[in-house]
């Protein structure tokens, strides 16, 4: 049978793409084709399971049941592949078609069963399904001496982790340190539900506290979690860099507007009458319209200080509780900065804009909207957009808080 550069047969490609009719034709011509491995050691069944093609999986297992026993590198079974790709439908089918106790509890080279893997990946539905299967040894121990309960207890806590832990405890799961040893017999496992079983491993001993600190998840899964953390850090770094650039530009604009206000400054000293003098270098706007000048400077100063605050927080790296809190704080400060920058723009335009009559004269008599009206409508649209975005974020935050608190309360009552 012809193979491509990656060692894959036509059955590999048909299985991966879910072509049921083509798979049926190829199996009729050569049932042994489902036993061929590609350069990665994967059979057509592996590709079908990883893609979640349940019907193709059924056909391949029916053609050659022994293909379910083929292992990949690091001793991973077809069940491990289904769990790693979060294909619960394919996992259920495999357990139903070839659900022997030995097969369901197969371990990889690190001693991890599919329950260890599902727990480490925090796949609640998969873990719940596995602990409900009578074939599943829920207290199996991996090479690090961890049960599934050990893994979830030594991972960062969140709602999924709490739900998985609750399912494990209800099913009778134990920590390896709570498993009493039976000399020459292994470990007797007895949980709250009265389930008992024996793991044939007379030399097994509970892990030391140092081991629990050193390894908090199955070894082959650490790389994936590390990659997720690195991607999150990279995204946060890019967002902080963007905020830093924007805040620096706004601070520069605000500083320039303060030292060179709209309308300019007096070139030389002039007598304003009534004993008042217009000093060189002072704002013309401050003399002609003091009230508007005060509003302009107030808005500009708030924008300047807020943008400097963003630069200060990013540069100093304030150690807040979570990165998410820092991002929320910076986002709120940026909203304040942009809002007052818009107000500064409005006061600047109103200060230098001509009156309505002058505007009509400059435009050769063509009637145009008053500049005050244009600026007012523009700012109204801006404030409306800002308020809408802020409202959406507030609603999302409120829903998130309610869900967190509600699930935590339910969990506490269940534990009691």
Automatic annotation (TrEMBL):
ANK repeats lie at residues 6-38, 40-61, 74-106. Its main location: membrane. It is found in: Membrane. The keyword Phosphoprotein does not apply. Gene3D superfamilies: Ankyrin repeat-containing domain (1.25.40.20). Residues 233-350 form the PGG domain. It holds the Pfam family Ank_2. This is PGG domain-containing protein.
